Amino acid sequence: MGQVAVFESVKAMRAAVAGWHAAGEKVALVPTMGALHQGHIALVTEAQKHAKHVIVSIFVNPTQFAPHEDFKKYPRTFEGDRAQLEAVGADAIFFPPVEEMYPPGFATRILLLGPAAVGLDDRFRPTHFEGVATVCCKLFTQSRADLAVFGEKDYQQLKVVTRMAADLDLGIEIVPLATFREPDGLAMSSRNRYLSPEERALAPLLHRVMQALAARLRNRDDLFRAVGEAQSEIITAGFELDYLEARHAETLAPVTSLADGPIRILVAARLGATRLIDNIAV
Ligand code: PAF
């Protein structure tokens, strides 16, 4: 595969995109915070199906981390990331320094309602989606990409970004991609590398519990009882549970039975210092 270009400025990225667009060629963006794993590479491969050129942004976005969260220790592995992106044939990496994204005086945030205010991750990370939406909005307008690919692993994020792109007429299509999993079912995440061997062995339980819960709901088991028992199983296994809920798959509103529409099960739980999130369709 050819060398992947690295753009550190919006100007350089836009010049490349303008050239591709002038040739009538589509451009896809894959937003990431680096520390790439097979799940990210699957996003790039998906992007390549939709567009001739793929830009992967690597930016650990400070505005989506609360002061007590892992911004400082978030893994930064640029050389390894670059090698993986070269191997998969990505065209370019957008790797801006923080001042390119947030110059002195930066004072804007996006106010989110709808799927960003449903009492799931927003309840535990109250400023997180505002930071995600702000940086994604910037990445979309900076790159002028035709589409962006997001993983379903961060399901609430996917819904928030999709809503924002539509509501603000950002002129970009959001393409979702199913969660990439380890063979034992654990959803791939850059944060999995924080897990101790014991925590790593326990972590796939989340997926197994969600699968069993989904089967019970499909069999029209009582939703409140089934969700409550699944929550207890996770807590008894040693997780600190933030939430395990059955929600409407599109609006993320609470549901009371299968009749309330397509259902998504969403979970967030902590093992030691590591917070894991996951979700599956019912
Ligand atoms: O999902 C992520 O890695 C981040 O939230 C994103 C979308 C790159 C924004 O910083």
Automatic annotation (TrEMBL):
It is found in: Cytoplasm. The keyword Ribosomal protein does not apply. Pfam families: Pantoate_ligase. ATP binds at residues 33-40, 151-154, 188-191. It is an enzyme of class 6 (ligase). It catalyses: (R)-pantoate + beta-alanine + ATP = (R)-pantothenate + AMP + diphosphate + H(+). Beta-alanine binds at Q64. Keywords: ATP-binding, Cytoplasm, Ligase, Nucleotide-binding, Pantothenate biosynthesis. One of its GO terms (molecular function) is ligase activity. Pathway: Cofactor biosynthesis; (R)-pantothenate biosynthesis; (R)-pantothenate from (R)-pantoate and beta-alanine: step 1/1. Its EC number is 6.3.2.1. It comes from the Bacteria. The active site is at H40 (proton donor). (R)-pantoate binds at Q64, Q157. Homodimer. The reaction proceeds by a bi uni uni bi ping pong mechanism. Belongs to the pantothenate synthetase family. Catalyzes the condensation of pantoate with beta-alanine in an ATP-dependent reaction via a pantoyl-adenylate intermediate. This is Pantothenate synthetase. It comes from Bosea rubneri. The lineage of its organism: Bacteria, Pseudomonadati, Pseudomonadota, Alphaproteobacteria, Hyphomicrobiales.
